[in-house]
Amino acid sequence: MQQVQKGFTLIELMIVVAIIGILAAVAVPAYQTYTLKARFSEVVSAAAPYKLGVELCFQEQGTLAAANCTNALGGIPAATAAADGAVAAGSGAISANGPLTATITMTASNANGLAGQTYILTGTSAGVGRPIIWTKAAGSTCIAAGIC
What would you report as the CA-atom Rg of the chain, rounded to the nearest whole angstrom? Predict the structure, then answer.
């Protein structure tokens, strides 16, 4: 009696290994980008107290002029003094204030895969009593990195 052999051929095994290799080559870079976006989300959420402070100052003062609404004035928090997790020193700096515009600059720390990318928000109001509309500024380096 002749026995029938069971199992996979070498070619079938090589095809499976090749498919796994292709999937890994696609998945690893996507996962790295995903983790950087997750780390950078801390920088984005750290901007919230500054946005709120600027909005409250604008409602109280009626202007966003630097003399009234800047870091540590008018209820706006001071810029961070030291690296705090994903946020680097100097983050939250309020600048380019005009009567109806303000800019908040957040900077990522140089740790955990982040490399000091910036997240710049520009807030503009149509007038006193009107809301501030926040937009990401084109100068934000996180846009080019694809993480914000």
Answer: 25
Residues belonging to the chain: 148
Please enumerate in sequence order all residues whose Cβ is within 8 A of that of 104, keeping only pairs 6 or more positions apart, or say none.
47, 50, 51, 54, 92, 93, 94, 120, 121, 123
The string of pLDDT tens digits covering residues 28-51 is 988 988 999 999 999 999 999 999
Name the token pair of 82: 């030291």
> CATH code at 69?
3.30.700
pTM exceeding 0.70: yes
DSSP per-residue codes, 26-70: HHHHHHHHHHHHHHHHHHHHHTHHHHHHHHHHHHHHS---TTTSS
Lay out the sheet containing 93-95: strands in order across: 93-95, 101-107, 118-125, 132-136
CA nearest to 107, candidates 72, 76, 148: 148
Specify if 3 maps to a domain: no
